[in-house]
Amino acid sequence: MNDTDHEQQSIALLKEISKGQQPALEAFYQLYEPRVYRYALSRLNEPFEAADTLNEVMMEVWKYAERFEGRSKVSTWLLGITHHKVYDRLRKRKRAKLEDDIDDFSNQLTDDNQINIEQVLAGVDDANMVHHCMDKLSDSHREVIHLAFFEDMHYRDIASIAKCPEGTVKTRVYHARQALKNCITKLMVAMEPTA
């Protein structure tokens, strides 16, 4: 199924859900369960809480499917709901930390000083090393890296989910890439055999 067909199917399911059709919710759940769970788990680092968040998100879809206005993709809208549920959980755990936005700095970034994260990750054989370094990132940096590279989302969609300017997303991705590169480099150097 291509992206257009997937989106049309999702919109049709939301229309049915808004009419109280439970089979439509079940089909919608099957379509988006892996993505919502994966996103929640990447932020919460707790499988039980991620599963609980998934159920809360789908309950929101059941109650408020008619609120989808089509101004974004269904996945962006759904991950936006997930973002809010995750943030509520983080705040309740007193783990949410507000970060300063650095919009002015983001405008100075060019493609020349970007680090190709795909190349860095491709060069790392040990998934535990990547997982370790991802865990070291702040919540907001881990979120943008997850959405950009594991969910393959555009900066504008990430900005919509994170409720921040697109420039802030670019800045966070830049700093997260730098932090990942530094962490992975340190781990690889530490693993090198000494002569």
Give a quick rundown of the structure.
The protein is an all-alpha fold and 195 residues long.
The run of helices and strands is HHHHHHHHHH
CATH hierarchy: architecture of the largest domain = Orthogonal Bundle
Mean pLDDT, all residues? 80
- CATH secondary-structure class of the largest domain: Mainly Alpha
As a percent range, the share of strand residues is under 5%
How much helix, percentage-wise, in residues?
over 70%
> Biggest β-sheet: count, sense, barrel?
none
Contiguous uncertain segments of 5+ residues = 95-115
Return Rg in Å: 18 Å
Task: Output the CATH topology of the largest domain.
Answer: Rna Polymerase Sigma Factor, Chain: A
Structural class: mainly alpha
Termini separation (Å)? Answer: 53 Å
> How many E strands?
0
Tally of discrete structural domains = 2
